[in-house]
Amino acid sequence: MVLGVAVASLAVLIWGGALAPASTPAPPVNDAYLNSLELNAPGTKLNDTDTLKDVRNTASATVQTNIFDPCGRAACPNGPAEVTSCRGVNYGNTVWYDFSPNVNGNIEIRTSGYDNVITLYPFSLKTALPNAGKSICVHANDFPSEQMLTPVQKGQNYTVQIGSVSAGGGPLEVLFDFFATPPHRLTAQTTLKAKQISNGLQLLGLSVMTARAAKVTVSCGRFCPSQSKSDHATESFPNLNGVQMPAGSNLQIFVTAPHSIGAYIEYGILNGNFTKTTRCLEPGSRKPRKTCH
Fold first, then answer.
1. What is the pTM (predicted TM-score) of this model?
2. How many domains, the chain?
3. Is residue 147 located within the same domain as residue 256?
């Protein structure tokens, strides 16, 4: 979380370790809000290929009247008490998990062991406060399991609170899956007009039709300055009119947008003609590829 408290990281498969005798189980390491287990650290990739698993005994888990206490300091800031109610159902013996998606997607959380409530909160890294007004909680039945499936956003930090409806908590299994949203794929249609010159072509007009929010960049090497536009669904480049390009040169068009698979079009200039090649661009890259994902 923050406030100088070290948080533990959750690997692909984590067991809570050997459980203490049933009469005196140790408090779980993620009992307190600021000691939540991290599925990933902010700014790193959230695992979208493996199921993350955690098993712990929550019998000695507590509920905090101040979520910033304990904080690892002599004096802790004042904070709100834990929320312990979901749609009229009360719960306790809470444990916490954090994650920060690096791309948009969906998170699935599955719990088993006893009747429980799952609550998801966005929170601010700056203030460490969970946003209770935008929280989502799940308590679908009285069975010893629950499931939450909900979309999450890139760059937003989230904390998950799991609490026991059955008094006393106990052994709890928690499974996390993240399903990244596939990137949007851009398409583009281009029209090039040119006339033959002695050793190549003279450009007479270029237009590119693509998504309105996409950025279109045109480059013809040393024969004209590179230029970019992103204002209209169909972009034209009148500054190219009259540019002479010799055989063997290339006119390159890059169509890009954040978090999207881009389009690449290349006109290979011949003596009195041209070839056209289309490729794709991985999100954030300008290296043409035959296939992208």
1. 0.70
2. 2
3. no
